């Protein structure tokens, strides 16, 4: 079996056995990154393009390393230096990349649905690397992988997600993914950050963090998007931190062996204290390492010959 | 189940394993500096059998690695669907080791070519020898085995199945692929 679509646009469209296949494939590919020579010849001659319309370090470099460790050629296009500043449309840019025989185009865009629109008009495979507040599927797959590796499975685990659920594509993708894989998902945050009707996705809503953390196997902290602070979602960073920031005392409500996760970049001292971010429960750096294996898996699976 | 033909039963396989084991030990003057690498999936079972036999004769536990050759296949870009990747687990450094590479059936030689490249990417072994249960001919690359359980002339539309369960019944069967 393989993936059903030519693209990876979101977790919502994936079936559970496709998610399982990606995680299993990533598990096999992780070994490559532990070698002295971190490269296998599997995708020689394939071309992957990073097309990023939003700033990113982690995701972009993760895709770059993933492609290179599979021997694909990779080029980075960042908007500031591209023809987009001359007014070229997203579609025209991508169409040109396709004419240069790009097999896979990795897109990050501030507008929800941009990768989806591209995918429908291009023969190349499109991977969504984050679109607006819609989805960030490879981050969710990375988080799933990290949890599965540490906990041996996903089904039945209590996962508490804390922060700006309404605007977070990481949260949205993780909710779809975790619910599909049978986890018990809780979301917590101030009412202004919890979208109405989120419970219909199969999660339970908490406004009290201690309650949400009670008995949790995994605590997933979301980045407080400080750039949105102007929108008055909460009175002050200090107040947010006091009510929804994770610290050692709070973490005691969770299970003893609970994992602390964060998709990065971390606002130290805001959503999570520094000692926790670097502490024994934290798997934040493992998430980064696993992200490469997961993206290798996605690139590998989408690269089947279309001869 | 049309046209299944039993080629080797448990007893025959056991005799072949014993002979191969003796050949390996003789040629390498013991088993001290050997490691086994089985090609997933059939080769891994065979490698385990060989390790057991070598332990019986020489009293040495050989390290066993498991190699998945998918990422080194020469037909990846022409496949409609990507083959399932399995884990490569080589729990030792291959550099300067004498490796017995193990597979159940040797056919075109393409799997062995991929396995050799896969191992070379992990280090620089001192030597690689090849052990197979069945050599069915039809080589497409200049590759030959060092140890063979049985030479079995086949036609290309036949399928050779080697079953080497630990504990279960072992057998080699030719199935008519037509």
Overview of this structure, please?
The complex is a heterodimer of chains A (about 300) and B (about 180). Chain A has 11 helices and 9 strands. Chain A has helices at about 15-30, 60-70, 90-100, 115-120, 135-150, 170-180, 210-215, 235-245, 250, 275, 285-300, and strands at about 45-50, 75-80, 105-110, 125-130, 160, 185-190, 205, 220, 260. In chain B, helix 1 packs across helix 2. The relative contact order of chain B is 0.21. The interface of A and B includes residues 1 and 306 of A.
- Distance between the ends of chain A: 18 Å
Could you give the distance between the termini of chain B?
Answer: 11 Å
Q: How many beta-strand segments of chain A?
A: 9
Strand content of chain B: 25-35%
| Strand numbers in spatial order across the main sheet of chain A | 7-6-5-8-9
Give the overall shape of chain B, derived from the CA principal axes: globular
Which pair of protein chains has the largest interface, and what are the residue counts? A-B, 29 and 22 residues
The secondary-structure element order of chain A is HEHEHEHEHEHEEHEHHEHH
What level of helicity do the residues of chain A show? 25-40%
Strand adjacency order, main sheet of chain B = 3-2-4-5-6
Could you tell me the mean pLDDT of chain B?
93
Whole-angstrom Rg of chain A? 19 Å
The unreliable regions of chain A are none
User: Proportion of β residues of chain A?
Assistant: 5-15%
**Multimeric status of the protein:** heterodimer
Residues in helix, % of chain B: 25-40%
Sum up the overall morphology of chain A in one term.
globular
- What is the mean pLDDT of chain A? 93
List the total number of helices of chain A: 11
């Amino acid at each position: 079996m393989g993936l059903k679509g030519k693209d990876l646009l979101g977790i919502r469209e994936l079936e559970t056995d496709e998610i399982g296949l990606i995680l299993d494939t990533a598990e096999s590919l992780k070994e490559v990154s532990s070698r002295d020579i971190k490269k296998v010849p599997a995708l020689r001659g394939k071309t992957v393009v990073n097309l990023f319309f939003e700033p990113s370090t982690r995701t972009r470099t993760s895709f770059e390393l993933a492609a290179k460790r599979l021997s694909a050629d990779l080029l980075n296009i960042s908007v500031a230096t591209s023809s987009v500043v001359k007014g070229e449309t997203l579609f025209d840019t991508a169409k040109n990349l396709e004419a240069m025989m790009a097999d896979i185009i990795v897109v990050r865009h501030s507008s929800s649905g941009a990768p989806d629109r591209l995918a429908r008009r291009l023969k190349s495979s499109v991977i969504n690397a984050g679109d607006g507040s819609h989805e960030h599927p490879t981050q969710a797959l990375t988080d799933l992988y990290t949890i599965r590796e540490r906990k041996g499975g996903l089904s039945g685990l209590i996962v508490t997600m804390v922060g700006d659920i309404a605007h977070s594509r990481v949260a949205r993708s993780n909710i779809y993914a975790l619910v599909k894989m049978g986890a018990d998902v809780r979301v917590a945050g101030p009412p202004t950050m919890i979208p109405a009707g989120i419970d219909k996705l199969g999660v339970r809503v908490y406004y009290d963090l201690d309650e949400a953390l009670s008995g949790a196997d995994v605590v997933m902290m979301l980045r407080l998007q400080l750039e949105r602070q102007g929108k008055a979602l909460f009175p002050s960073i200090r107040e947010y931190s006091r009510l929804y920031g994770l610290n050692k005392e709070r973490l005691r409500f969770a299970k003893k062996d609970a994992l602390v996760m964060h998709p990065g970049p971390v606002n130290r001292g805001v959503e999570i204290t520094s000692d926790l971010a670097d502490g024994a429960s934290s798997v934040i750096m493992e998430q980064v390492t696993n992200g490469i294996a997961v993206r290798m898996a996605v690139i590998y699976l989408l690269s089947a010959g279309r001869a | 189940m049309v046209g299944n033909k039993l080629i080797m039963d448990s007893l025959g396989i056991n005799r072949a394993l014993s002979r191969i084991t003796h050949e390996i030990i003789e040629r390498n003057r013991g088993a001290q500096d050997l490691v086994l690498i089985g090609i997933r999936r059939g080769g891994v079972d065979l490698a385990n059998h060989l390790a057991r036999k070598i332990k019986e004769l020489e009293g040495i536990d050989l390290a066993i690695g498991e190699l998945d050759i998918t990422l080194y296949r020469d037909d990846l870009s022409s496949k409609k669907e990507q083959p399932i990747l399995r884990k490569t687990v080589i729990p030792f450094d291959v550099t300067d080791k004498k490796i017995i590479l193990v597979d159940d059936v040797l056919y075109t030689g393409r799997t062995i070519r991929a396995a050799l490249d896969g191992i070379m990417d992990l280090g620089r072994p001192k030597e690689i020898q090849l052990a197979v249960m069945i050599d069915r001919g039809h080589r497409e690359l200049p590759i030959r085995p060092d140890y063979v359980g049985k030479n079995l002339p086949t036609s290309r539309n036949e399928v050779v199945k080697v079953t080497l369960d630990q504990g279960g019944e072992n057998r080699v069967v030719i199935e008519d692929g037509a």
